[in-house]
Amino acid sequence: MVKEKRHRCIYSEIASWRCKGLARKELAIVKLGGSLITQKEKPLTINLQVIDAIGNALSKSDNPLILVHGGGSFGHYFADKYGLTTKPSKVSAEGVSKTRMSMLELNLKILNCLDKHGLNPYPLPPSNFVQLSIKEKRKLFLALVDYGLTPVTYGDVLLKSKGFYVLSGDEITRMLSEALKPIRVIFLLNVDGIFRDLNQPDSLIEELKPEDLTKIQVKSIDMDVTGGMRIKVKEAIRMAKDGIDVMFINGTNQERILRALKGELLKGTLIRGSRNE
């Protein structure tokens, strides 16, 4: 059953005011990793059961939510095929079109799963907000959350004066955290967290500090054009320096997701916001 408080903000000015206060206090940003929601080694293959389970877990939370998802074997596949990177460049119109259409396709599949669980997903392409000021981003996203919607955005292909480039979901997550100052950011992965050595299951880092970054062994998937795990951690450290707790957990475990949204880390990696140090 979907929690009623998520949907009651529009009924009165008082309810709206209370929901706005909640949004500022309990808002969480959840990043769905591309390797979790798709089979990254198999182009255009989505993990619908995983997304459905995530939607079920999120629907049980009282937190106002903003969701960001990666490209996985959809966007990354075409970006790699046509030479799109995080740096603006002149690439073929076909490559831009196919990459962007693949992200729209993936986004729609995710939206349908979230809708089934009563989350009222609101698709918001990055082109709708990346050029806005921090204040304008905050106003836009909080207005949507206050209305009882769950904004859902994603990594995408954007245009600059020097050409098209890929804006990663991880960078978008950091961008939104800067504007919204959520209580926490949660990265959902297909593994239990950040490891010192991927070949040693007992090397999970329970709490990560900025100086530990060089000690992490990072496995990169060939088609990941946005920097993989190391970029995720770098962006997370930037968010933590702004006072935001960042968690990396296994997105296939619903109980861990629910507990993380409450600020409890059952198993995973925490980068503690500087306000708590």
Question: What would you say this structure looks like, in words?
Answer:
By secondary structure, this protein is an alpha/beta fold. The protein has one domain (about 5-275): Acetylglutamate kinase-like (Carbamate kinase, 3-Layer(aba) Sandwich), CATH 3.40.1160.10. Helix content is about 40%, strand content about 15%. The protein has helices spanning about 15-25, 35, 50-60, 70-80, 95-115, 135-145, 170-180, 230-240, 255-260; strands at about 30, 65-70, 120-125, 150-155, 155-160, 165, 185-190, 245-250, 270. The chain has a 7-stranded mixed β-sheet, with helices on both faces. Strands 5-6 form a two-stranded antiparallel ribbon. Helix 6 links the parallel strand 3 and strand 4. The longest helix has 24 residues, at about 95-115. The N and C termini lie far apart (about 35 Å). The model is unreliable at about 5-20 (pLDDT under 50).
